[in-house]
Amino acid sequence: MTRAWLAPTADGPVRATVRVPGSKSITNRALLLAALADGPSLLRAPLRSRDTELMAAALRALGVRVEDRAGSGGEDAWLVTPGPLRGPAEVDCGLAGTVMRFVPPAAALADGEVRFDGDLRARERPMGTVLDALRALGTDVRPTGENPAGLPFVLRGRGGLPGGEAVIDASASSQFVSGLLLSGARYERGLTVRHSGPPVPSQPHIEMTVAMLREQGVAVDDGTQDVWRVEPGPVRARDLDVEPDLSNATPFLAAAAVTGGEVRVPGWPERTTQAGDAIRGILAEMGCAVELRDRTLVVRGPGTLRGVDADLHDVGELTPTVAALAALAEGPSRLRGIAHLRGHETDRLAALAAEINGLGGDVTETEDGLVIRPRPLRGGGWRAYADHRMATAGAIMGLVVPGVAVDDVASTGKTIPDFPGMWAAMLEAKETAVEGV
Ligand SMILES: O=C(O)C1=C[C@@H](OP(=O)(O)O)[C@@H](O)[C@H](O)C1
Ligand SMILES: C=C(OP(=O)(O)O)C(=O)O
């Protein structure tokens, strides 16, 4: 059992410039598409964290070369050289939704047997939809554990797949759609994915998938709601600069919000498909000054934060940060449209309610979200439940509530290589304010 991490309390307004590592969602899509491409691709400034290292390892296991390289400016890069996909191979998904939902549709193209497993919690994450779709498309997939509809399982590839049409219920995760689309162009007849069921969450992530496919020369028709058609054809190799991870920027921006400070994040894209961009509107609604200037996002916190009524269906990833902000605001908040968060790294609705209430808060779970009423809070234990975003939410709380002890800060390594170091550097920075925000 590792020692808890005592979240540092800010001794005044936080003023810092924070460089955020690359986007998990872009890095793992880029790795997978590079593995299916018609030549080598250089991915510059990729995220190096547990989720992306697991994706790289999965692709290497299938016969793809993923090598460390420096880009032309000396920046960190991954050179991906595709090869024929083949088994036998073993894929460790860890707790990464992008690995467990994106790799099996690619592995269905491999020649040979591919075994998938992951963390214990990963065995509980929704997965059956992808496996049923692959079966319906002609892949042999069999469970190898107790869960008939998830990890662990074995997939026996025959070196190709006819493709066609898959009708799925993607209401539990947009990744079911993204995973199938990413490999669909390499199926003989391409792939049509048709969603049937309650609304699909996290739409921007599907838009990111479609945009990245198009950038690699794949024809995608997304003109009809809940239907996506990927034409068969080559995936063109492409060198790419990975954008900073905007969702991972949010705890740092929250530090400005809750301390009345100012945090700048350089490299913020003017236009992006990343869901995390929505934090700008949420922070503004809560009373922050938010300005995107020359690709640097500047957030200045107010004296007191306002509560929000927010539908986070499209941007569920932001919920732990927004819930922490809401618990530290002056009025009540309601977060809606996020029932699917019960299937994330942990049941995030239950976890947020339990941990905020454990500090003296007043949070109730609704069918599809949370109602958060600010209360005076006290220090205490904060369980991360192996969830990187629960750990960073605990760090936000600790900035203004002395004595918040996060049990598993190492869980942040899922998507941030050195979160405690970055957090400490932010608190030590003491920069001066910029004009005009
Ligand atoms: O495709 C992606 O990169 C992601 C899609 C979303 O998943 P869900 O649709 O399961 O929420 C998001 O929450 C996750 O962090 C990353
Ligand atoms: C839901 C998330 O991750 P995953 O990609 O594992 O689904 C997340 O990062 O908030």
Care to describe what's here?
With 437 residues, the protein is an alpha/beta fold. It has two domains: 5-21 and 245-429, UDP-n-acetylglucosamine1-carboxyvinyl-transferase, Chain (Alpha-beta prism); 24-231, Alpha-beta prism (UDP-n-acetylglucosamine1-carboxyvinyl-transferase, Chain), CATH 3.65.10. The protein is built from twelve helices and 23 strands. The protein has a four-stranded mixed beta sheet. Strands 4-5-3-14 form a four-stranded mixed beta sheet. Helix 1 (24-35) packs parallel to helix 3, helix 3 (97-107) packs parallel to helix 5 and helix 9 (319-327) runs parallel beside helix 11. The radius of gyration is 21 Å and the shape is globular. It binds shikimate-3-phosphate and phosphoenolpyruvate (PEP). Phosphoenolpyruvate (PEP) is lined by residues 96-98, 317, 344-345, 389, 415. This is 3-phosphoshikimate 1-carboxyvinyltransferase.
